[in-house]
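User: quick one, fold this
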Amino acid sequence: MSKQTSQSLMSRRLVIKAVGIGLCTAVASSLPGCSLGVMFGKMVMGEPLTPADFKTMTKEDLTKGKYTVLVVCSAPESIDSEHSTLAYDVIDGVTRRMKLHGVKVINPDLVASWIDDHGGVGSDPQELANEFEPDYIAFIEVQSFSFREPNSPKLMRGQSSGYVRAFSVSEINGHKKVTNVFISEFNSTYPKHTPVSEQGRSSMIFQKEYMDRFCDLLGEKFYDHRPGSDI
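Assistant:
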């Protein structure tokens, strides 16, 4: 087959495909009721994105890369003693997810080093604002966290609760001013219906799986996402 003939056949296929899509769209739009048209739209374009809670509340879209965000995480000592790296894992995981979605972020390693040097995050974000000069501080406060089903040491189920706050940082007369502009509560349980037995899945694999989902849940408060990913 000549090169010219091959190109001609390819052009015909593209025209036929375009006509087919156009006909399907016309048919879908003529169907009674809007639900079938919506379903067809989802088949072609996929599920629409769910707006980020932060954008809904503040009207600011962090994924445009205009603002720099600092992510920090705190947890009570009772959690730290059992999950010593939880705060650092959350800072790293959420920061990486933000970066992947176009949010301009501060290096989580620098944040972790600052926390080590200062003996923790504390409850006042003012020092962080002075040190790193971000536009926003995403402050994740974990109040409870566990990989285990209560009273069942052989059963695994990720459970956590707490708050996500965001502070805007502005400069007035040479001084940083920190203002709380966003707050959202989180409660997660995974799996929702029944716990997982250690005999069916290793503890290490399950813990990584839940941490990934947990960081997704927290990160999605700051960027638009597909529905159905909440836990």
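User: anything notable?
Assistant: The chain is about 45% helix and 25% strand.
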